[in-house]
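Researcher: Good morning. I'm working through a list of sequences from a screen, and I'd like to move beyond sequence-only analysis. For each chain I'm collecting a predicted structure so we can compare shapes side by side. This is the next one on the list. No need for commentary yet; just the structure.
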Amino acid sequence: MQPAERHGYRADIDGLRALAVLAVIVFHLAPGWLPGGFAGVDAFFVISGYLITRLITAALEQRRWRLADFYQHRIMRLLPAYALVSAATLAAASYLLIPDDYLFYTTSLAASWAFVSNIFFSMLSWGYFGQRAEQFPLLHTWSLSVEEQFYFAYPLLLMLLHRHWQRYLTPLLALLALIALLCSQWQADQVGSYFLLPYRAHELLIGALIARALERHPPGPRQAGVAALAGLLLLAGSLLLLRRELPFPGLYSLPPCLGAALLLYGGARANPVSALLGRAPLVAIGLMSYSLYLWHWPVLSLLRYRHIALDGAAGVAVLALIFALSWLTWRYVELPLRRRRLSLRASALRYYAAPAAACLAVGLYSYASDGAPQRFAADARELLASYSYERDLGGACALRSGVAATVTAAYLRRHCGFGAPAEVGVRPAVLLYGDSHAHHFKPFVEQLARQAGWRAVYHIAGSCEPFDLAEPGAAATVCQRRNADMLLLARQYRYVVLAGRWQYRSQEALFARRLRQVAQALDGGHTTLVLFKDNPSTDADLSRCVLFRRRGWLPAGSDCDFRYADVQAAQGSMDREIDRLQTAMPQVRVINAKRVMCDQQRCLTAIGNTALYKDGNHLNAPAARLLAERYLALAANPLAPSPESTEKRPVDARADRP
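Model: Good morning. Structure tokens for this chain:
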């Protein structure tokens, strides 16, 4: 997203920049208006590859190329404006963001100044289009990191090829572009493919190839017009027809990239399309496209975080704000500093090292203080403290999604215990397993186990319900193998507690059948099956809702609580299947946390000064303990031993078998 080059200036390129940045802004403001607007970034990559190749090859051929000058120019063109946006965004984030979100933000801020924010965002499971992505004010810096990484490596590559294999430069660039495209197409990790340079390099190299083509084979008047028109149609069609659900980039990135490439190629000669792109209004927007790109996403993200709707008049006002900030930044930061002549050392110290060190210090402080909760008043800090959540999946007790592991009873006893204190020679009586909802119910089960005097163990696998919900004949999955292993282990325990986000993927009939099969497999022995009905869930993030409600920041008529009718509509069928199973098999015990969360009108998201949710569907740890206390005040402990089974059994050989 760099500013326009002045060497051999072409107004149509700034017009193309204007189309690209407007597409991105419209997509982020109202995705339904321009579903493929995210491909505007791909057009920027093509432009960058074209300009940087033209600049470097021309300097190399004229023997006036200096790498230090190149990096000094990049610093002065890109970093002062980004330093301003970083400072403004940090101030707003420090006021608005709750600790967990602030910790993520400050980490991304430090990563962006290390030019690795694309790597940071690639490590987060929700990706560029995920719902949580809107909570990251610096998400858009991934593309800046991609470009900076390209700028570090590409000039050195061009210097090497120009010196030793100049005649093969274009074929080698084409080969590299093809390899990158194929890697992008066949990369299984869609999040990594979207963010990382190796899977985006073909887009920058397409621009490089256009620069080479114009040096060797510039278009004639007719060719220029046809190329520019075809490019405009390809780019416009991509912006209108691409969808976020498609596996992008891969082959789907070719239409917008080729569209931008053809516009660059055709614009080398006068033609109607390029003349249109060179009109003053588009050029004016293109000149400040870098500032527009920098400002638009933090403004949109932080306003949405504050629950401000961005439609109608509000949307127009926000656009005006974005353009005003961008013009001021372009006029009073970009232009003056771009013309300053400093040494590489001076520019690097002043405009890179100093702000990067400051952002790193902020990130370290935020990490050390766990999101700097002291930014809030005492009552808000008390509420925020309840957001803590046993969410870190990893190791053999709590697996991340898709991770395979073989677990034995001995391992669980040694490493995954909780509840009553462990005693030598006494094996755990309770096994808890399931998906991440079993994980958030762990403090609840711990309260029950402690009251009953039982030692418990647990095994969690993210996104892995505790019994197989795949249709018959489906290929065996990590979840299926894990559940089969756990069912074999389950008979060694007095109580087996299962919990999951039942409605997430389940079909009612299949859920009922699998539930019955598990109950029957555990029937007939000393093992009692205990089932959790799921807690109310939503796809919206409730982590900050209670605090914002208290501050009066929610829109009129909005509330954080669930409507009970909506909860019943979403979960009622699964709850009824659990009730039917208990009727048919009275020995099955059921825990319904909704008894202490809901009345006939609503289900709470906070009780007193304790927020119940970490996000839209996971309870936090203090909430789970509070719900257990309230549940035990209403109902008998489902882990309470019957009179004939209170004797603790010693460990035997079976405890160590898989």
